[in-house]
Amino acid sequence: MTDKKEQKREQIMLASLHLFATKGFYNTTIPDIALSLKMSVGNMYNYFKSKDLLAKEIIKFVSSYFGKKIKEVNDQNISTREKTRKIVEIYFKTALLRPEMIDYFLRIYLSTREVFKEGCEGMICVNDFVTEIMIYFEEGVKCGDLRDQDFFSAFGLFMGYMGGMVFLKGENVLPKELDEYIDDVASNIYKALSV
Fold first, then answer.
1. Torsion sign across C-alpha atoms 121, 124, 126, 129
2. What pLDDT sits at residue 1?
């Protein structure tokens, strides 16, 4: 695929990501997306054959984004405690700077599972992200910092806590800015997972 076509695909995904996250998946149409990009509906179909395929490519895009960021953390020669903090920071900063990415994951991917049945079974479409979180856990256990436990319970604790804080911020319940909670949240997650 040419660089120009790949750039256009990414533009479409980013515009769709914003519309899906703000209007909802079912309330957003291909014509809505095309209009937001000032392109024809027919041209949209040259890039994505259906809204469902577009939705799957977006979740892969979001997973890749987080996977790359967490891989950078995993590749650093720092303690598991420091890695925990950096992962929380990435998540919270993304929630502040690119909230549509978090909204898409929480509101579209997790709540519209029927769209992701075929081709996204299990965690296939979020593999980049999940793989890096697995590496974080495996390395933490290997060096003796984290308890050896079921991946999904550890993953649920980590993601549930961060997602819950982002939700509370979105509901205007938190008295402070989200980034002011990074140290406390990271410390609590690390304590809950550590030996």
1. positive
2. 59
User: In this structure, what token pair is assigned to residue 132?
Assistant: 């890096």
Map tokens 């939700």 to a residue: 167
The pair of three-digit structure tokens given for residue 185, joined into one six-digit string: 């949240």
**72-85 pLDDT tens trace:** 999 999 999 999 99
Average pLDDT over residues 72-99: 96
Q: What average pLDDT is seen over the chain?
A: 92
- Options 3.40.630.30, 3.40.30.10, 2.30.30.140, 1.10.357.10; CATH for 53-193 is 1.10.357.10
Integer-rounded Cα Rg, in Å, for the chain is 18
For 178-190, what is each residue's pLDDT tens digit?
A: 999 999 999 999 9
pLDDT at 129: 94
Three-state secondary structure string covering the chain: CCHHHHHHHHHHHHHHHHHHHHHCCCCCCHHHHHHHHCCCHHHHHHHCCCHHHHHHHHHHHHHHHHHHHHHHHHCCCCCHHHHHHHHHHHHHHHHHHCHHHHHHHHHHHCCCHHHHCCCCCCCHHHHHHHHHHHHHHHHHHHCCCECCCCHHHHHHHHHHHHHHHHHHHHCCCCCCCHHHHHHHHHHHHHHHHEC
105's tokens: 């994951």
* Cα-to-chain-centroid distance, residue 58: 10
